[in-house]
Design brief:
By secondary structure, this protein is α/β, with parallel strands linked by helices. Helix content is 44%, strand content 11%.
Length: 430
């Protein structure tokens, strides 16, 4: 509370009147997708994000004494609609939250011109880790290449991967293709056979051809980079074909409670790497209950609120709120602009102590960003479905970023060259 009191004082000093600051607010629009083929996963994420911001408004009067205007612009996960939402909201927004790798790739070059930070926690273009090149883009706390590396680390902890077969079941979309370069490099280094198996958008609910290929291939493991209806379809097919669920691992967007509840006990053993974890006993959950749920200001429900995706939405908004608070404190003003928020997002230090101060105990691993590292590489836990819920199945795994640092630099350089002239942050030293 001392932290917020200090920021509130800064707001008074920086503003002509406290009332003027309250009138303006902090416009942090979210390019949501509560409709369309991915709505089942989008809704709990958006609810978690909104409830955290509503809690800050009700409990603290916003951030630093300034209310948060957490608007949603519905995209249906459509890239075209996402770009329209970006154009519609960018005028007064201090951040854009694209919520799709496809949308992120489309607005990425625009943000250099518009000078507005992209916040894409755990998704988007993996080389955005290179903050010097992608000075307006952030995918903290962990990127797709981190996730791919941690999954392989986990599999390797179960036994030597040399000579083994790993199938990569992925959405045939920029999101699904993101980890392929790192997985190919890891396959070459560790001697396993890597076979990508794409799932088209029209095949998400009927993956019979893909699972026929898996049955014929008999892989030692299946890694899934799925989203929305694709995840439920794949999990159902895996049960139907009696694929060993303990050998089936998804990225963090393929670890949604509702998808596993469809198969229940039959899904026992399925795993998902995750940089977030639901903790019903965390203080933030009690504050949301008191200030949002009991006030009738949530669109969620108790079952959803106990799940991985709702709690991940909370963590995502907490990351944004922390970036705002850091910027407010540094610049001595509560009414920060987009450029100042960029600095804040570059200087997040989520230590265990800070995580506890925010009431997020056990919900996110520690991480820190810098001008050169916009991902933070928090690491994650391997979660396992126990038949009714996800539980932690590993200690904290941390990505071996040195293994793909050269690839980050190479792909960032290629992007900048192909989109020349591409401004970089020349002032960034570390």
């Amino acid at each position: 509370m001392k932290h917020f009191a200090k920021l509130a004082a800064a707001a008074v000093v920086a503003s002509v009147t406290a009332g003027a600051a309250m009138a303006e607010g902090l416009y942090t629009p979210n390019l949501s997708y509560r409709t369309g083929p991915f709505a089942a996963t989008g809704i709990p994420l958006m609810n978690g994000q909104a409830d955290y911001m509503n809690m800050l408004n009700a409990r603290d009067g916003g951030i630093g004494g300034v209310m948060i205007d957490f608007d949603e612009c519905e995209t249906g996960y459509s890239t075209e609609k996402g770009v329209e939402c970006y154009e519609k909201t960018k005028g007064k927004a201090i951040v854009t939250q694209p919520w799709s790798t496809g949308i992120t790739l489309q607005v990425l070059p625009k943000t250099n011109v518009d000078e507005i930070p992209i916040l894409a926690p755990g998704y988007g273009f993996s080389p955005m880790m290179d903050g010097k090149t992608f000075q307006w883009a952030f995918n903290a706390p962990s990127g797709y290449w981190d996730g791919a590396d941690m999954i392989i680390q986990y599999l390797e902890s179960q036994g030597d991967l040399a000579g083994k077969k790993i199938a990569f079941l992925h959405l045939d979309h920029p999101y699904g293709k993101e980890p392929i370069p790192v997985l190919e490099a890891l396959a070459a280094a560790k001697g396993f056979e890597f076979t990508p198996i794409p799932v088209g958008l029209k095949e998400m609910q009927n993956q019979s051809a893909q699972w026929l290929q898996i049955r014929r291939m008999r892989p030692d493991n299946v890694i899934m980079w799925g989203w929305g209806a694709m995840n439920a379809g794949a999990i159902t097919e895996a049960v139907k074909t009696k694929y060993p669920m303990e050998n089936f691992i998804g990225v963090w967007w393929a670890g949604h409670d509702a998808d596993l509840k469809i198969v229940g006990e039959d899904g026992k053993g399925y795993k998902s790497i995750s940089w977030s974890f639901p903790n019903p006993d965390a203080p933030v959950m009690a504050d949301i209950q008191k200030h949002v749920v009991e006030a009738g200001n949530t669109q969620s429900n108790p079952e959803e609120m106990s799940g991985v995706f709702y709690s991940r939405g909370i963590v995502i908004s907490a990351i944004l709120a922390e970036g705002i608070a850091v910027a407010q404190e540094h610049f001595g003003t509560a009414e920060i602009n987009a450029s100042q928020l960029r600095w804040g997002l570059e200087n997040i230090n989520m230590t265990e102590e800070r995580i506890a101060e925010l009431g997020l105990d056990g919900m996110v691993p520690p991480f820190a960003t810098s001008c050169s590292n916009h991902t933070g590489n928090s690491g994650g836990w391997m979660l396992e479905w126990d038949g009714s819920k996800f539980v932690k199945a590993s200690d904290l795994l941390t990505p071996n970023t040195d293994a793909y640092a050269a690839l980050v630099a190479e792909k960032a350089g290629e992007y900048a060259t192909s989109n020349a002239p591409w401004p970089v942050n020349e002032e960034c030293e570390g």
